[in-house]
């Protein structure tokens, strides 16, 4: 066993990100981030570990074998996979600073932030709350059937149905009607769901599909959001000379597009009204648990678009994350 692991470790050490991504893809990732973050990202892709950059790694003497494919000598996760994605990097950097990590050492900041999160999680499990975990490999449809047969009285305060709302999965109407009966009788219970690929079947779900005027308006809002302290003409001139900036604006164009009306049409086409009528649930316009979309506060209206307070916040949300900015989040409840 030891020999096989040593051999695998040797294979992993020879792997570089170029073997898993084309040179063009790699350069595009590196081009959009600050030099210090390029170095940090390269080290992470070579080791697959989240540690402060200058750590001695006495306890971790080799790469993370779970992130490499020994047979193909390649990076196993999707090429855009990054543990930084999805986190509030402002908070990550703040937490890292309390332990002495600098913003340039972004994975070091994440290490200390995750450590704090896990310690708090452990404290809540052991000292604060009575919590039990049930892990199953059953798909959502079979799980609901199993609960009905084996634990018919089981009820939940919150049910996150994830991506099963898609028409190519269980479907929105079927998912809501299946899981609504498992909600507890309290008024604050909710079903939440994440919709990312809905734009594939809703032409005006994206700025480009909504027409030239919507596209131009979205671009203006993205530019204003990105460089709110500089004149628009100055930003446009800079974009002409900076390919990385140009591609960043194009990649994040959906950030400036209000897709709420298109999403409402999509929900109607998927049978939401019938599902709500059948279950007695309501689509919450005033949110209590999750916002309408990424990058907006909980109290924002359904038509709100993401806004960032400064250029650094923009950089963290766009260059250091991987959102399409078309994502919408559902929240259903009894009131």
Automatic annotation (TrEMBL):
Domain of life of the organism encoding this protein: Eukaryota
Name this protein carries in UniProt: Uncharacterized protein
Organism: Coprinellus micaceus
């Amino acid at each position: 066993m030891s020999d096989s692991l040593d051999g695998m470790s040797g294979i992993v050490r020879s792997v570089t990100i170029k073997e898993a991504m084309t040179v063009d893809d790699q350069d595009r990732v590196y081009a959009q981030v600050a030099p210090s973050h390029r170095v940090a990202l390269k080290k992470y892709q070579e080791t697959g570990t989240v540690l402060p950059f200058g750590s001695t790694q006495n306890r971790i003497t080799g790469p993370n074998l779970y992130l490499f494919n020994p047979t193909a000598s390649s990076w196993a996760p999707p090429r855009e996979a990054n543990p930084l994605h999805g986190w509030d990097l402002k908070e990550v950097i703040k937490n890292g600073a309390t332990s002495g990590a600098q913003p340039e050492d972004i994975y070091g900041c994440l290490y200390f932030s995750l450590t704090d999160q896990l310690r708090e999680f452990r404290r809540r499990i052991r000292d604060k709350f009575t919590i039990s975990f049930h892990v199953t490999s059953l798909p959502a449809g079979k799980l609901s059937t199993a609960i009905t047969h084996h634990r018919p009285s089981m009820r939940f305060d919150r049910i996150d149905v994830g991506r099963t709302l898609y028409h190519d999965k269980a479907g929105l109407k079927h998912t809501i009607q299946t899981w609504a009966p498992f909600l507890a009788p309290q008024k604050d219970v909710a079903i939440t769901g994440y919709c990312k690929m809905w734009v594939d079947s809703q032409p005006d779900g994206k700025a480009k599909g909504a027409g030239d005027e919507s596209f131009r308006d979205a671009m203006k809002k993205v530019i204003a959001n990105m460089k709110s302290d500089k004149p628009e003409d100055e930003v446009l001139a800079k974009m002409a000379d900076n390919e990385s900036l140009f591609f960043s604006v194009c990649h994040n164009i959906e950030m400036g597009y209000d897709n709420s009306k298109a999403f409402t049409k999509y929900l109607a086409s998927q049978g939401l009204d019938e599902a709500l009528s059948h279950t007695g649930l309501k689509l919450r316009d005033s949110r209590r648990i999750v916002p309408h979309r990424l990058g907006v506060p909980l109290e924002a209206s359904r038509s709100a678009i993401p806004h960032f307070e400064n250029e650094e916040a923009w950089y963290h949300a766009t260059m250091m994350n991987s959102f399409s900015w078309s994502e919408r989040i559902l929240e259903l409840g009894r009131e």
